[in-house]
């Protein structure tokens, strides 16, 4: 079987949850004897917009479409005819038996229509809420509040502050850089990006509502987006896979066909964890606490620092906190984190590679995931679990579901600094009073030193095998669930 994976971004430059899921499962599908090709996007202002290039990653052929965010209209953020023409060429080149869509952001919903027109079955994993929320699918309003449902009127007040395209100046600069490279071979995009970042003011903490006219205009566009995307999925996608159970009613309410929804959870990197044996904490050594994720407000490392500062000094002194993750997205916010961390003796560092993540998890006692958005099924929590660490997390979505499924740790209420402080204190006291291996195993149904994969915490190889079954059923037109 020839499988085309379609995703907005792909490793090695991008290593968030969607990218890891797509690359890891794609490798397992290929290892089972199937041909796997990837189509993805990359922003590269030194290259012509919508040009393509190829590379290899992990043994898979990767076709990159350059998307420099030159959309002229808001509609082009989800359906872009010029991108459709490129994707049509990819389909004609690859001639897949099945297409597995992981994300349409930066691509185009037209890909689904192209597959339907060619009789190519489509399996789609929905990794976030982008289908209903145009602001990166995070269900977060710029006023700081969380959205439980899609309310187009509320969306109208949100999206005017969302930077969904490059400005005319940015477009002209990008075209100039591309022209310089095509003539001279010299890529000047790096220095220009660094100069621009250095002169960029820190983002404002405040949010001002848009005018009624602007809000009404975006409200209408959001309604149009939903009226396009939801019927397109119903018409063109054979099997919709959801990584967490709590997502099912949300997408049923949005209008997807319940008969085509299948829960297909993410995997656990048991093999990777075993390659990095747990580094046990010696008697009297500090309890090792870790935040690992993008250093952006909705991941809420600031909340962790605030709670950490409220711990009793003796308890905090017997522990060590490290805050690590990609730090290039919001320079002003990261500067604020570093200023808050310094008097607390907290390390704030940048992104880690895959092997560095595994090594860091092997010497972690407690992972903290204080996200203020509805995380689906955070891979970072599963990696900590596989390494034998406990988890403190927000009581939302997939974070709460993972602990309900048996991840050892504790939950606190969203945004509650005092609740997070109390959860941290309890975890630190437990870890301090027991050897690190015993503390990690407390309440655990599944650690590296004990059972291994279970039905709710499968290995990635099992997820890959399940995906092959979904592909096979899609090709046969069988909509029945697996198992």
How would you describe what is shown here?
This protein is α/β, with parallel strands linked by helices and 483 residues long. It has two domains: 2-137 and 219-263, 3-Layer(aba) Sandwich (Rossmann fold), CATH 3.40.50.2000; 270-441, 3-Layer(aba) Sandwich (Rossmann fold). Helix content is 41%, strand content 14%. It has 18 helices and 14 strands. The chain has an eight-stranded mixed sheet with strand order 3-4-2-1-5-6-7-8, with helices on both faces. Helix 14 links the parallel strand 12 and strand 13 (390-394). Helix 1 (17-31) crosses helix 18, helix 3 (110-118) runs parallel beside helix 7 and helix 10 (301-309) packs across helix 16 (417-432). The protein is globular. The chain starts with a strand and ends in a 7-residue tail after the last helix. The model is unreliable at 168-204 and 436-451 (pLDDT under 50).
What's the structural blueprint in terms of helices and strands?
Elements: E1 2-6, H1 17-31, E2 35-42, E3 52-57, E4 60-66, H2 81-94, E5 98-101, H3 110-118, E6 122-125, H4 152-158, H5 168-184, H6 189-198, H7 212-236, E7 239-242, H8 247-254, E8 261-263, H9 270-274, E9 287-292, H10 301-309, H11 313-317, E10 319-324, H12 331-341, E11 347-349, H13 354-362, E12 366-369, H14 379-386, E13 390-394, H15 397-404, E14 409-412, H16 417-432, H17 436-441, H18 460-476
Parallel strand pairs: 1-2, 1-5, 2-4, 5-6, 6-7, 7-8, 9-10, 9-12, 10-11, 12-13, 13-14
Antiparallel strand pairs: 3-4
